Fold this sequence. Notes:
Elements: H1 2-19, E1 22-29, H2 49-60, E2 66-74, H3 77-82, H4 94-102, E3 105-113, H5 114-118, H6 120-127, E4 131-135, E5 151-156, H7 165-188, E6 194-201, H8 209-212, H9 216-227, E7 233-236, E8 241-246, E9 249-254, E10 258-261, H10 263-268, E11 278-279, E12 283-294, E13 297-311, E14 316-328, E15 334-338, E16 342-344, E17 348-355, E18 362-366, E19 374-384, E20 396-398, H11 405-429
Parallel strand pairs: 2-5, 2-6, 4-5, 17-18, 17-20
Antiparallel strand pairs: 1-3, 1-6, 7-8, 8-19, 9-10, 9-19, 11-12, 12-13, 13-14, 14-15, 14-16, 15-18, 17-19
Amino acid sequence: xxxxxxxxxxxxxxxxxxxxxxxxxxxxxxxxxxxxxxxxxxxxxxxxxxxxxxxxxxxxxxxxxxxxxxxxxxxxxxxxxxxxxxxxxxxxxxxxxxxxxxxxxxxxxxxxxxxxxxxxxxxxxxxxxxxxxxxxxxxxxxxxxxxxxxxxxxxxxxxxxxxxxxxxxxxxxxxxxxxxxxxxxxxxxxxxxxxxxxxxxxxxxxxxxxxxxxxxxxxxxxxxxxxxxxxxxxxxxxxxxxxxxxxxxxxxxxxxxxxxxxxxxxxxxxxxxxxxxxxxxxxxxxxxxxxxxxxxxxxxxxxxxxxxxxxxxxxxxxxxxxxxxxxxxxxxxxxxxxxxxxxxxxxxxxxxxxxxxxxxxxxxxxxxxxxxxxxxxxxxxxxxxxxxxxxxxxxxxxxxxxxxxxxxxxxxxxxxxxxxxxxxxxxxxxxxxxxxxxxxxxxxxxxxxxx
Length: 451
């Protein structure tokens, strides 16, 4: 019996371990506005089968329905970061990166449940009357498409040889060439299409030995430095830096249709005018001016208004991001009030997600009617408007409180269970035995009513 219980426990643990396996999924399309900025909110969350099906719904509603599915044997999000550099003139993911950046719509899901990808092809066939075509890598360049009915092309990429970094990079580069050739063939024929690139199971990327031996705090610091692809935007008052601003993703959507990604313009190419920014001891305004963005938005101005005040309750100064304003093409200024973006004056403020959605850690609340037409999305947001030293962010006050909902649930559950245990022990301690007992061989015991 004990052996059966042990086997059952191991089976449950194995199922739980397998259930957390996930793979990345890249989606891009020549159709515009398939996914808005809120759809990219999946950091730290594993996309389930039902959630994936909801994200794929916009692909099925387009007039021109041509879908390309690239399936690989193993893939993980670490593959894109670990093999992002060139290896002996090999450029892994070169075409994939360019296609994601140049496509009209794109979506990157860093973690999708393996069960969802295992049944992905079956779900696609059930969702619509597709003409399914399996393509060999040698037939990619001479692909012919009949657009009279929906088409789905399945390309099973070659397995990845993971003997060493060089062989792995070459395998990824070869698959990347196949992806580029097929998409180029479709573009030359003038066909509107959507692409899904994923794998059947996750891969395991070994860590470098010198990193593994470091402490956990050191490991987190090392990985954070690698992910920072650009420097923060710094505003000077003539002599020193007075405002620092950073975001790994900074994008806006106007009227649910016009999307503008400001990340590259703000932090990489620096094609933004911030000369109108103002700094003082009590107030700071970060003003970002963009020109010639996209069709529908020519001139765009974004202002972050911050103040610094002394609060008697805490006996120190605090800085607060009071509001955010967006103006474009001489239209009415969209004004947002800001929730919980504040920190001690000597600190910076950091939040993983900031925007107009109620799911974000810090929310931008529309303060007028014009603001309701805008969707704002900032990931890894960090800002500091006062007391900046050495052109670097100070210690960050994060938007996530110490007592998260999960911690509160655990505390309340523990208190209830502790109360039940205490009550049970108290009741057991109150139990007493009878002072008199019947003797089955003697005369029956008689207890007077007065006792």
